[in-house]
Amino acid sequence: MRAANIEVTAPFDGSKIGEVPVSSAEDVENALAKAYALYRNKDGWIPLPDRLDILRRAAEIIKQRREELALQAAREGGKPLADSLVELDRAADGVKNCVEVMRAECGDVVPMGINPASLGHVAFTQREPIGVVVAVSAFNHPFNLIVHQVTPAVATGCPVIVKPSDITPLSCFSFVEILYEAGLPKDWCQIVLPTDLSVATSLVADPRNAFFSFIGSARVGWMLRSKLAPGTRCALEHGGAAPVIVSKDADMKDAVSRLAKGGFYHGGQVCVSVQRIFAHAEIAEELAAAIAVEGNKMKVGDPTKADSEVGPLIKPAEVDRVHDWVTAAIDGGAKLISGGEKISESCYKPTVLFAPPADAEVSKSEIFGPVICVYPFKDLDEAINRANSLDVSFQAAVFTKNLDIALRVYKRLDGTAIMVNDHTAFRVDWMPFAGARHSGHGVGGIPHTIHEMQIEKMMVIRSDEL
C-alpha cells in the first residue's frame, strides 16, 4: 500500500500549494533496478544527437513557461519572484550549456611511438557515462539546482534518480515532466521521495549508484558519503560562512550595494551568502550603517509579488533560530545596527550586527538567514586570519582599489573562489563551484559535473603499419 502524499505548503503563509507521492522502499528498489538495467544495456543507450535534441527542446520549453515556473518556485521556496525569474533564465541557459559542452567533448590522444615499447602503437581516449546517478537536492533554488544535478546526467547518458527536497518538490516534478515532454524516455530520469531516512540512505548506499550528487547541509552530506558503496564517486555541496574583507580604500558606494544584495538575497538562504565582513576600523561603522540603510529599504514579504525583495525563511522554526542567534550575539556584546526582529512567523527583517563576539553562533556557523556581521580590523593579516579561522571554506571576497591588497588577500584567504570587488554569492553556471574542508567535496558547475559523470576509456591499437 502506498504511503500518504506529502503536502507542499508555501513558506510565506503556510497555504497548501500541492502534494506529491511518498516513495516506499519498494519504489526506490524499482527505480534502482530500472536505472541500472538501462545502464547495463549498452545497445539501448540514447545516442548523443538524440540527447542533445532532447535538451534543446527542454531549454525552449523552460523559456516559454518561465513566468509560471518562476511563480511556482517563488511560492514553494520563498525566493522573490524577480529573483525566481532570474533562476529560470539561468536554468534554461544551463540546459543549453550542457549541449554546448557535449558538442565540444572529446578525448585525448596519448603519445605513442616515442620509445621502443610504444613503437607501432596509437592510443586515444573517449568518454562514456559513469553509470547510475543518484541526486539529492536542497530547497533554496528548487528549479536550478535540479537542472545542475539532472541535466548533466541526461547529457552524458547516465540514468538518473533524483530526490528533491520534500519542502520544495514541485519545481523538480515540473522540470522532469519537461524532459519527458522533450522526448526523454521516463525510466532515464526518475523521481523518488522517501521520507524514511533509512530508505533514503539505502538509495544512496546501493552499489548500483555510480555517482552521488548532493546539495544540502554538511551534517547530512558527510553522513551519506560515509555510507557510499566502494567505488561510488560523489560531489557534495554544503554551505559556508562567507567572509569579505573591505579595505579602507574601497569604493564604498559600490561595495555597500553589492554586499547588501549578497547578504540579504533570498533571505540569506544561499550557501555563499555574505555573512562575515571584516572592514578596516576607519570605515567599519560607516559601512555597517550604510548596509543597514540598504536593508531597511528592501521590501520584505510575499515572494509572489513583483516588488518583493526579501521573502520568507523556509520554515517558522528557522525564523526562531535566526532570532535566537541574533539575540545571543547582542547579549554577548554585538551592536545591533538594524533589524533584529521578526516581521511575522515566516519573515525576518534584514539585520546588521557590528562586532559580534568570535564565539557567537553568528560568527562561527552558517546563519542561512538575512543577517550580516561587520567586524573592524586594523591589520590586514589579522583580518585574513580571522576570516580563515572556521572549518568551512567556499567563496570569499575582497573590496579594494589597490592591486597589491587584492592579490595579497587572494593569495592568503582560504576559499575556492575569491571575488575582487564583488560579493561572495556571484556565480555563473559554467564556472567551477566547490566547497573545501567542511564546505564540500568535488567540483560543481555544469562542465565540471559533466566531467565527473563520465569515465575516460582508452583504446590502444598495435599495428605493424604504424
Q: Report the C-alpha radius of gyration, rounded.
A: 24 Å
Question: What's the level 1 CATH class of the largest domain?
Answer: Alpha Beta
Tally the structural domains: 2
- Alpha-beta content class: alpha/beta
- For the record, give the distance between the C-alpha atoms at the N and C termini, rounded to a whole number: 64 Å
Q: Order of strands across the widest beta sheet?
A: 12-13-14-11-10-16-17
| CATH fold assignment of the largest domain | Aldehyde Dehydrogenase, Chain A, domain 1
**β-strand number:** 20
Main sheet attributes: strand count, strand direction, barrel closure: 7 strands, mixed
Q: Classify the helix fraction into a percent range.
A: 25-40%
Query: How much of the residues is beta strand, in percent?
Result: 15-25%
Number of helices: 15
> Averaged pLDDT, please?
97
CATH architecture of the largest domain: 3-Layer(aba) Sandwich
What overall geometry do the principal axes of the alpha carbons give? globular
- The CATH homologous superfamily of the largest domain is named Aldehyde Dehydrogenase, Chain A, domain 1
Task: Please mark out the parts with pLDDT under 50 across 5 or more consecutive residues, or reply none.
Answer: none
What does this structure look like?
The chain is an alpha/beta fold and 466 residues long. It has two domains: 6-238 and 439-460, Aldehyde Dehydrogenase, Chain A, domain 1, CATH 3.40.605; 242-420, Aldehyde Dehydrogenase, Chain A, domain 2, CATH 3.40.309. Helices cover 39% and strands 20% of the residues. The strands form five sheets. The protein has a seven-stranded mixed β-sheet, with helices on both faces. Strands 7-6-5-8-9-19 form a six-stranded mixed β-sheet, sandwiched between helices. Strand 5, helix 5 (144-156) and strand 6 form a beta-alpha-beta unit. Helix 2 (48-64) runs antiparallel to helix 4 (81-104), helix 3 (66-77) crosses helix 4 (81-104) and helix 5 crosses helix 15 (446-452). It is globular, with a radius of gyration of 24 Å.
